[in-house]
Design a protein that fits this description.
By secondary structure, the protein is an alpha+beta fold. The chain has 18 helices and 22 strands.
Length: 508
Amino acid sequence: MDIKTIAIVGGGTAGWLAANHLGKALLENEQLSITLIESPDIPTIGVGEGTVPAIRQSLQSFGISETEFIRRCDVTFKQSIKFVNWLDKDTHGQQNFYHHLFDMPGSALQDLTARWLANKNSYYAGAVSPQHEVCEGFRAPKNISDPEYAGKLGYAYHLNAAKFAELLSENAKQRFRVEHVRANVQEVILGQNDEIESLVTDSAGKLDFDFYIDCSGFAALLIDKALKVPFISKAEQLFVDKAVVVQVPTANDAVIPPFTISTAHQAGWIWDIALSNRRGVGFVYSSKYMDDETAISKLDTYLGGRLTEHQHRVIPMTVGYRERSWEKNCVALGLAQGFLEPLEATSILLTDFAAEFLAQRFPSSTAQVAAIQQRFNHVMDYAWERVVDFIKLHYCLSDRDDSPFWTDNRDPETMSEELKRRLGQWQDFVPSREDFFSKFEVFDLENYLYVLYGMQHTPKQKQTSIDLEPQSSALQQRLNIVAKQLAGELPQHRDLLDKIKRYGLQKV
């Protein structure tokens, strides 16, 4: 039987990303229709969302103007995550921070890394990329004369999630013929083979489709409530399970960091994301090691005693993912598929990755489902497990011992076998490209190096400065020159945003 009708249940970023990916990939099939069913009663969770550079490729492929996106979604550029106080403050002093940059150094990375390991007289990120100096100077990653989606350095975005969903919605409906129904799903009806047969809604009646995408968030109306797919908890590896979130208005001329700030505390960390008109701040913590009252009090201290001036809320976080993302005639995406703490902006990343992967291999008939389903579930399982490992890496490398939260995170029993294997190997050798053999590694060599050596991890085997001369010395000198040039030539972050809003970027 041909698949001719697709329902996406749930809007928000996940639903509308899925609508754009599927709509674009299946646009030429005029016999197929895509309908997104969105509840008019469920607000967007986000208080300032972070992304990774892959989102640029998706937005450009959808035909969305970067200028319009920046103007409409309170967008700021994100070139890095700046990790503050993730190591012991007494040991590492005032310079206790590092950048996980979005710039990928390329072929020079191996030599620059070896040189840094031999000397360790600067920040690792600054030794391998000019972006470190650009970030610390609060510079933008591009000029107003650079084309849309292109820049001098790698970048992603911070954005207003509600406005982003609205922009994605308009694009999907106008470019890709996606139909939009506002209704609440009240009942999911299963057929004889336990596949989803139809949805009963409060305002649109009974709706029948051939295939269903569950983007209903934590409610997981289809994959959980109807199909009963088990949830794999990762709470034993990733401890944080709550967040106090708040939006803080900022002045029109306030300096905007071109990076997310992630500040570690006694039982977790704080995200601080600056949009063009406000900051989204979240105090992320583990309820096993800190109660709500203490978390709220510490967030108040972080905000200079001004938390009561703004509305805040406590959000529970169930950390893990579905045992099977694709079950019967239903695929779960976004929060319905799973959730890991927001340390590396993995929510939108995994949603975008999964939606694109599904769209590129979407079955045209039910006869194709079994084989594609098996492949999809295998890839998603691998991707989720490797993201869990990468997030855990930040905690288990820390030498903080000011609370049981940090010492317990170093317990090997809280790490996966794969992470323990990799860390054991990297005790003796510098990570190499060959250590990341799968193209479905969501985080690759450069990402690991920025975190490993930002956290002062040191392998036993390292080259001496004699081994590195003169090639690496010349590389380092060229990098330092480029860093100073970019830090001097690139505009201040807010200045560029103001120019984009006024003049726009060049079309590609």
